[in-house]
TrEMBL record:
Organism encoding this protein: Streptomyces mordarskii
UniProt protein name: PP2C family protein-serine/threonine phosphatase
Domain PPM-type phosphatase span(s) in chain numbering: 307-527
InterPro entries according to UniProt: Bact_Sigma-Reg, GAF-like_dom_sf, PPM-type-like_dom_sf, PPM-type_phosphatase-like_dom
Keyword terms, alphabetized: Hydrolase
Length: 544
């Protein structure tokens, strides 16, 4: 409120004369005890603009809405449209009284005010787009949505989300700083047809709710606002897909929703519906990916007496954590473990799906067989892949059984996979040659089978081509290669199987230096070193 001082007029005339003088003023003058009334008096121009004014009565929404709204907002100035007129007003004090001075703006001023109003609305919508697009998390998007409309469009807002079964969730903001959420039965919402239509995407334009229509929403709408005269429901959709319904409520001190408010609410709903739909789609995709990750990720390695195991796994699409590489190790009833290790051609989701199918087929075969039949398993899997039209895959399968002398007997059958490497006790690396054809390539392939023995402390390495074909180095184009892998494995003498797998993955990752890569998988099987040996001492030192 502005205090006038210095250079003011002299009111030395009688009250009747003062009233006649004020009637000569084109500007509306309303004199009150305070900003919201009671009214002491007003001139003829004020009576024309606000015919509902009465001496002794308060400045109410029904009598003079622009004044009441400005008083509620403690505003000293306002510009608004009222009853088809553009009005501009300001608040002063004189002689301990509050004086409202209001004038009707000209056509040029109206155009300027309309332009300013449109700029304000555009800024609001731009801010809406920015805030709603700041996160793809569905819950955070909902919370931002109900907050944005306060106080620009409403004093409180409620978002009702699409039904899941016979119930749905709602989130509310306002009045003030209040925030809450809950669950409501669909039958309850259907008692308010306009809300139900908006929720199902059948209410294309915002529509005003009458107080009696709000009675059915006691669980959702605050009681002090549900009885008000101003409520608006807007459907939130994108591409014809319902994303929810937005209910906006105003208190008794604010004007009802006019055409400009309804148009702004509609423009807001378009952006909000798109943001909600996008966030919901992203959440569904994230859930699907999480399920795929859980189902396709390698299972933890088992414990086996007389045998040590290690593994490393780094998918090409690390953000998705799904890969075309796969491996599985399971305890064997005959002692030791059975295992398989493979690599589907390609990478990403398509390769991961095939890898999951191959892994499940191999596990099923292991459950129905009394004795392992590696070559027979490879042939059955080859027939399955050809009939299904899958892409190619390599696979090595076999078993590792501890012997009484502390060694481990390993039997493998290969379907086109890279030959395993063995780190011998003397520090040398040997290749276990086992030739075979790709699975899924031809109807009648030939597969190789071989055996080897791991003496105490010796280790076998199974790996995918993502290790040897990793491109990096100084140029970023040089492959890691077989020679570097052999040298890296030779440097792991005396280390335990899990540490060897971790070290080889680390060296490959350092070689890549953050560059894109293919799926990387490593599996190590080791015969425990004898106690008192150099390897055992190194192991104990490493453990310490």
């Amino acid at each position: 409120m502005t205090e006038d001082s210095g250079g003011g007029g002299i009111w030395g005339c009688a009250p009747a004369q003062l009233g006649e003088l004020l009637d000569l003023v084109d500007e509306a003058v309303v004199i009150c005890d305070r900003a919201d009334g009671p009214v002491r008096g007003f001139n003829r121009a004020a009576a024309r603009l606000f015919p509902g004014l009465r001496p002794g009565s308060p400045v109410s929404m029904s009598a003079a809405a622009p004044l009441a709204r400005a008083a509620a907002q403690q505003a000293e100035h306002f510009s608004t449209a009222y009853e088809g007129r553009g009005l501009s007003g300001r608040l002063h004090t004189a002689g301990g009284l509050t004086v409202w001075l209001v004038h009707q703006v000209s056509g040029a001023q109206e155009a300027e005010a309309a332009l300013a109003h449109e700029r304000e609305m555009s800024a609001f919508l731009e801010e809406t787009t920015r805030r709603l697009g700041a996160s793809l998390h569905h819950g955070r998007t909902v919370h931002a949505l109900v907050d944005i409309v306060i106080p620009k469009l409403a004093d409180a807002s409620v978002v009702v989300l699409p039904a899941s079964g016979r119930c749905t969730h709602w989130h509310r903001a306002g009045p003030g700083d209040a925030r809450c959420s809950g669950e409501v039965a669909v039958e309850t919402l259907e008692r308010a047809p306009k809300v139900a239509d908006a929720l199902y995407g059948l209410q294309p334009r915002p529509t005003v709710l009458r107080p009696q229509e709000m009675d059915a929403l006691d669980e959702v709408v605050p009681g002090e606002l549900g009885q008000g005269e101003a409520a608006l429901v807007v459907q939130l959709t994108a591409g014809g897909v319902p994303a929810g319904a937005l209910i906006m409520l105003r208190g008794a001190e604010r004007a009802r929703f006019d055409d400009a408010d309804i148009d702004l609410a509609h423009r807001f709903a378009v952006r909000a519906g798109l943001a909600l739909t996008t966030a919901a789609l992203y959440s569904q995709q994230a859930h699907t990916i999480a399920v795929l990750q859980t189902s396709m990720a390698p299972e933890p390695l088992p414990s086996a007496d007389g045998l040590r195991l290690g593994a490393a796994y780094r998918p090409a699409a690390e953000a998705l954590r799904i890969s075309g590489d796969f491996y599985h190790v399971a305890p064997s009833t005959a002692g030791g473990v059975t295992f398989f290790f493979g690599d589907v051609s390609g990478k990403g989701a398509e390769a991961a799906v095939v890898a999951g199918q191959v892994r499940q087929s191999m596990r099923t075969l292991a459950m129905v067989e009394r004795e392992p039949e590696p070559l027979g398993d490879l042939r059955l899997l080859n027939d399955l892949m050809i009939s299904a039209g899958h892409r190619f895959t390599t696979l090595v399968t076999g078993s590792a059984r501890p012997c009484d002398d502390g060694s481990v007997q390993v039997e493998i059958a290969s379907g086109g996979h890279l030959s395993p490497l063995v780190l011998r006790g003397d520090g040398k690396v040997a290749e276990i040659v086992c030739e075979g054809m790709l699975l899924g390539a031809v109807p009648d392939p030939s597969f190789g089978r071989t055996e080897c023995r791991l003496d105490p402390g010796e280790l076998m390495l199974l790996y995918s081509d993502g290790v040897t074909e990793a491109r990096g180095g100084a140029s970023g184009r040089e492959i890691y290669g077989d020679e570097r892998l052999v040298d890296a494995l030779a440097s792991c003498g005396g280390m335990q199987a899990p540490s060897v797998a971790e070290r080889l993955e680390l060296l490959t990752t350092e070689w890549l230096a953050g560059r894109p890569h293919d799926d990387i998988s490593i599996l190590t099987l080791q015969a425990p070193p004898r106690r008192g040996s150099v390897s055992a001492a190194a192991r104990d030192s490493e453990g310490s």
